[in-house]
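Archive record
______________

***
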Amino acid sequence: MRNTSLNSDTTTLPTRFIPCILVFIAFASPLWVAGIVLQDVFLSWLCWITSGWLSWTFTEYAVHRFYMHQLHPKTHQKLYQSHMSHHRNPWHIKINFWQRTGMVAAGIVLLYYSYFLPPFVTVFTGFFLGFIGYALMHWVLHQTWSATLFPRLQTAHIHHHGKFPDKCFGFSLIWWDYLFGTLPPQSAHLSTKFRDFYFNGKH
């Protein structure tokens, strides 16, 4: 197994991160503007919700790429240690069923009330729903049957656990990896042996 803390890009963090945040702003700013100028309450609310969700997907990608797999990781931090533990044991996922259920219930309640509350609450709601989606999707991607529902996303995630820890940082979506060039080569192959390791021998 490769050292999963390594990133093959040796440029400085600002040089790598600033272009990414600028691309994110380019995608999110039309939603922010629409949320402000639209007179239709529902459409405005939908724009704010979507911008919050989009913000989560970028945060998910950026934290995974620039913090979890940074060139000089802070190995003493619990979040980093937990992530590396998951790389060593892919079938161990910290968020359990009851935690996921509680988050879904909280998300439903928050989604309802966000329609009547200020836009910053709506944006937070979209962000929180994105986090819930990540928590669910990460579990799904470690199940064999997810190859039928999300074949490209699962393949990318298995590659990340294998020969390409410096690629495939998205959990919920693959598009940030596509935009920022962090997908593995098209010729990359997943061996049966590594698939067995990833699923802990599940078939």
In short: The mean pLDDT is 88. Residues 13-198 form one domain. The chain has one domain: 13-198. DSSP finds nine helices and no strands in the chain.
